């Protein structure tokens, strides 16, 4: 989720790839993947060209699948329907929250075989082409400085669609998730990105995908799964800070074992399925003003209930507090996050991997008025 007040997360590791909870690599098994470009993408200056460039840049890299694109006049919606696509939601996309864009990745929960990938561009922000010579966006937007480079955004998300996670240590990587306004950045994979694809689709990746048991001990986090907009420090309402704390908590709680993270003030972080944790009863009033925050809280996942909302999974996670940094933490709470598992299909929205019953997690509870 794009949040203009959250600190950027950094890590010392190189490329990151996605795994199932059992340790299997999340990867395509088909040799060719077709992406349908929804007609709404035409409303983004250079949007269709950006999709064509991104698929060309990633296609067949390091043994990965060939990527093709086709435009359509048929109305399509993001969500699990057997077709991968690229979409633009002019009025915003609730599962993306404040993200520039989000990838919805659906895969077999047991084998990691990807079933579908949908990339959604968030209409809450100006996306367009950037003139490399002028370093200014080539759109008719009233404020050119507010435009984000659609080539970089789509190319980054296409990497997520292939199974890569955000690379927070290498600023030269295409999977580095911070994007300044009106800047021309890399829109093709660099050596680190290609090395990640080699892990997924090279000889080692293919061998690892063949055995579910072999990779169980190698499980690693899925990562953010989206593009982050970088901006100067701003003052945000408490409602944004609530989401910020829970985004960071979500990345820690969902079996994340990343190391070496530090904060960088004034950067924006994307995690589309931020956990919104409120005491029982207050969950029904998510638009209520937030009074104050509790510190990071250790909790156990008691249960997870997942439903499909037009093909996009949504999970309610019931939590029981184990330990708290303040004296008045609630005994229990409920988190709402996009993604989850239904009928053997696991869906990760924006890289936030929904925890399972029995997992120990770290969250931030917020107090709200009904």
In words, what does this structure look like?
The protein has 370 residues and is α/β, with parallel strands linked by helices. The protein is built from 5 helices and 18 strands. The protein folds into 2 domains: 10-223, Collagenase (Catalytic Domain) (3-Layer(aba) Sandwich); 238-368, no CATH class. Helices cover 16% and strands 30% of the residues. It starts with 7 loop residues before the first strand and ends with a strand.
Query: Can you tell me the CATH superfamily of the largest domain?
Result: Collagenase (Catalytic Domain)
Low-pLDDT parts are 1-13, 137-143, 211-225, 230-292
| CATH T-level fold name of the largest domain | Collagenase (Catalytic Domain)
The proportion of residues forming helix, as a percent range, comes to: 10-25%
State the name of the first-level CATH class of the largest domain.
Alpha Beta
Q: Name the CATH architecture of the largest domain.
A: 3-Layer(aba) Sandwich
Tell me the major beta sheet. 10 strands, mixed
What is the overall shape? globular
- Calculate the terminal CA-CA distance, rounded to whole Å: 25 Å
Mean pLDDT score, rounded? 74
User: How much beta, percentage-wise?
Assistant: 25-35%
Radius of gyration: 19 Å
Strand order of the largest sheet: 3-2-4-6-5-17-16-15-14-18
Q: Structural class, judged by helices and strands?
A: alpha/beta
Q: Count the helices. How many?
A: 5
Number of DSSP strand runs: 18
- What is the H/E string? EEHEEEEEEEEHEHHEHEEEEEE
């Amino acid at each position: 989720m794009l949040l203009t007040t959250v600190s950027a997360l950094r890590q010392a590791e190189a490329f990151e790839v996605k795994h199932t909870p059992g340790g299997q690599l999340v990867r395509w098994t088909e040799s060719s993947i077709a992406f349908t470009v929804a007609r709404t993408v035409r409303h983004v200056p250079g949007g269709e060209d950006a999709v064509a460039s991104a698929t060309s840049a990633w296609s067949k890299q390091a043994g990965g699948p060939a990527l093709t694109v086709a435009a359509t006049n048929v109305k399509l919606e993001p969500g699990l329907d057997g077709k991968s696509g690229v979409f633009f939601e002019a009025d915003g996309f609730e599962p993306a929250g404040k993200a520039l864009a989000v990838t919805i990745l659906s895969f077999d929960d047991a084998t990691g075989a990807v079933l579908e990938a949908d990339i959604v561009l968030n209409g809450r922000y100006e996306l367009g082409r950037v003139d490399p010579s002028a370093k200014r966006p080539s759109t008719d937007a009233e404020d050119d400085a507010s435009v984000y480079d659609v080539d970089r955004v789509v190319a980054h998300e296409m990497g997520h669609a292939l199974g890569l996670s955000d690379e927070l240590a290498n600023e030269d990587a295409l999977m580095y998730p911070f994007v300044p306004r009106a800047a021309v950045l890399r829109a093709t994979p660099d050596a680190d990105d290609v090395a990640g694809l080699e892990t997924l689709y090279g000889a080692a990746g293919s061998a690892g995908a063949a055995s579910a048991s072999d990779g169980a001990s190698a499980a690693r986090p899925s990562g953010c799964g989206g593009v982050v907009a970088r901006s100067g420090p701003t003052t945000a309402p408490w409602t944004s800070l609530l989401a910020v704390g829970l985004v960071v908590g979500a990345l820690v709680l969902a079996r994340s074992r990343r190391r070496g993270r530090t904060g960088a003030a004034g950067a924006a972080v994307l995690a589309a399925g931020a956990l919104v944790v409120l005491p029982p009863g207050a969950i029904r009033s998510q638009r209520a003003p937030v009074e104050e925050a509790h510190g990071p809280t250790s909790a156990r996942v008691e249960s997870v209930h997942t439903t499909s909302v037009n093909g996009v999974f949504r999970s309610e996670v019931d939590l029981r507090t184990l330990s708290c940094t303040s004296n008045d933490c609630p005994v229990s709470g409920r988190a709402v996050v996009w993604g989850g598992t239904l009928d053997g299909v696991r869906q990760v929205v924006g890289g936030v991997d929904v925890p399972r019953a029995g997992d120990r997690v770290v969250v931030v509870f917020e107090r709200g008025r009904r």
